[in-house]
Amino acid sequence: MGRYIVRRLLISIPLLLVISFLTFILINLSPHDPAELVLQAQEVPVITEELLVQTREELGLDQPFLVQYIEWAVACLRLDFGESYVTGKPVWSILGPAFFNTLKLTLVSVAVIVLLSIALGVICALREGRLVDKSVRGISFFLTSMPSYWLAALMIWYFSVKLDLLPTSGMDSLASYVLPVIVIAISYAGIYFRFVRSAMISNLNEDYVLYGRACGLPEKKITKHILKNSLQVSVSVFCMAIPIILGSTVVVENVFAWPGLGSLSVKSILSRDFPMIQAYVLVLAVAFVLFNTLSDIINAVINPKLRNDL
Amino acid sequence: MTMLRNIWKDKLAAISLSILAIVLTAGIFAPLFAPHDPNEVNMKLRYAASSWEYLLGNDHLGRCILSRLIYGIRPSVLWVLAALAGSVMLGTAVGFVAGFFRGKVDAALMRVCDVMLSFPGYVMTLAIVGIMGVGLENILAAFILTKWAWFARIIRTSVLQYAESEYVRFAKAAGAGSFHIIRRHIIPVTASDVAVVASSSFGSMILQISGFSFLGLGVQAPTAEWGMMLNEAREVMFSRPELMLAPGLTIIIVVSAINFLSDSLQAALDPKLRTSTSKAAEQTSAVSAKQLLGREVA
User: Fold this and answer.
1) Hey, what CATH topology would domain A95-260 get?
2) Which of A26, A155, A192, A231 sits between 20 and 30 A of A53, alpha carbons compared?
3) What pTM was computed for the model?
């Protein structure tokens, strides 16, 4: 088992290197000159050639490409992503807190999604084809077809403005979590519960269920076995939900003015704050790879058959 | 043709298909269907309720909402369809090459896919928009760049599966060339997988593009686009929430129609799903596992 974990971790290192390299060259693909953008952001009135050369030197843009990359990558390991073009503050001092705010929102949402999906999935699987199953699936179909920002706006209008029950935006108290979490959970639970449902149904047809029934085991005990087996399959899917949602809260965060990565990334894009965008992409891509690795390892712990894959 | 007939038998799918056909035609021939010019400003009619002349009423600049919805089909649906077609073609080509020729080519292409797939879709799109600037064309380019790897993966798996089948081996033994085998024996059988995968991501792409426009990163004003219309409506959300209704419901109807169609397409194309129940269950779980990894909700 230890060997599997080590090998799985080693495999992700080259991937991380490639990702960091791609993130780095992203900025060089831009049609804009970074030095010019910095000067524009600092509202320098007249941009002279001299000033541009000087700024390039300050940013280290006059050095060979590979040197630039290595220096940048080493600095990133210390969470030093440079300074924001717009505010001049270190990127991590702004990105760090935003990352943890988004992480909090994501973890709460994923917890709700997991509970909802398992509950709905089990109910629907046990009543496959009946009214409950059909109506839950029908409703979830419409809910997943709904733009989340639209749902969010409706909820703000109803719960915050009309009923004045919950805050409209921000992250001041626990109550601020309610609406964003509901919106995210509704969008995703509709997809994830179908997964639990079909895993349950395919287990229902397994021989061990038939055997259990033949032996006269009570239905409750059989259901417990089915549940255990189908959740094993679902664990990796739920693990991957964390990075997926971490990277896609953009819209919801903007509607609810959540002080997280989503709001920050849109603000940075609109103000062309390249170091911020770069750090945002890098942090999320690394989180994605790490969670992917983690979910593979968890899977291997649960299911020893998978350990031979590497 | 049997496929179409199977879909037609399913009432819900038939309705979905008709809705989509109407939407696509209305979008292509927007000037013929729209009762007014979508950008015609008429300050006298600001926030006017629906009337016989303006069926869905007017927005904050007195523009005809119905006409804007109809013109909005172009960026919101037609261009998304084009981007989808682009990424499916790219993904299919890569998937075919990797799955059919195997070996080093396969390994190299799959590593590239691994790298592409390790950037979450939203993040990659935001990165590209951030670097290239806001606008619909950059988001579409980002879609093609981010989605193809996922299609390539799925197509490769299904090509691998068919390339091992008896009749392909027989064709090889009989001396048929690779190109002939791909064209005659592999494309037809993998086409169903392509259709299912493509249709299942069509809906989420529409949601995403409207989401980006809603955030102000996609289509710029005054172009009519559904997400953009919702963005404009959001500013007066508390005083006139009814403006959110028309574009929001349009998106829901179109995306639900696509999702329903995708599901029945899956059932119609997959003979295994129609015959035995136990096989069907296995199949659905495999497909939904595939779908989950690529689906991101807006």
Assistant:
1) MetI-like fold (1.10.3720)
2) A26
3) 0.84
